[in-house]
Amino acid sequence: MELSLGTVRAADLMSGPPITVGPDATLGTVRQVFVSHGVQHVLVVEDSTLRGVVSDREVLRALSPYLDTASEQARDLQTLRRPVHQVMDHHPVTVGPEATLEEVARLFATHRFSWLPVVEPSGRPLGAVTWRDLLGHFLPELRPEPASFPASRTPGA
């Protein structure tokens, strides 16, 4: 089996369209997006431009540990109202759609990523490459099933 590292591009590997929220979306909304879409990362977009990314781990760290417990109080619920821009990564590593499979793989290995946004030069997000997408190139039986999401995967759109 010949590995074609130079001819496969990020656009060929990526899953999309991306799931996005605005920078003023609350952590409660983002938490619901994670559950309803079965994802661990969400792109934060404003005016069709990527402004940041947020992971389920970042949201979990920002929320009160007493949420959904018998000890929950009003101050714990307040953490659900925080805007996502307060906890998101404002400078995410991204790749363009023309990035090679080798470039994507090196970023995954170097930074220990599990997910990498694919963004046009203008900043408009196109999708993301996951480690499963990357492995699926070499082992087609691991390719994720096509999602049955609507064309716009922005909550409330």
From TrEMBL:
Q: Where is the CBS domain?
A: 14-69, 88-145
Against InterPro entries, the record matches this protein to: CBS_dom, CBS_dom_sf, Diverse_CBS-Domain
PANTHER family reported for this sequence = CBS DOMAIN-CONTAINING PROTEIN, CBS DOMAIN-CONTAINING PROTEIN CBSX3, MITOCHONDRIAL
Q: Keyword set for this entry?
A: CBS domain
Q: Which organism was this protein described from?
A: Nocardioides marmoribigeumensis
Superkingdom of this protein's organism: Bacteria
The cross-references to PROSITE patterns, in alphabetical order and at most eight, read: CBS
Q: What is this protein called?
A: Acetoin utilization protein AcuB
Entry keyword annotation includes Lipoprotein: no
Q: Which Gene3D superfamilies does this one have? A: CBS-domain (3.10.580.10)
Among CDD domains, the record links this protein to: CBS_pair_AcuB_like
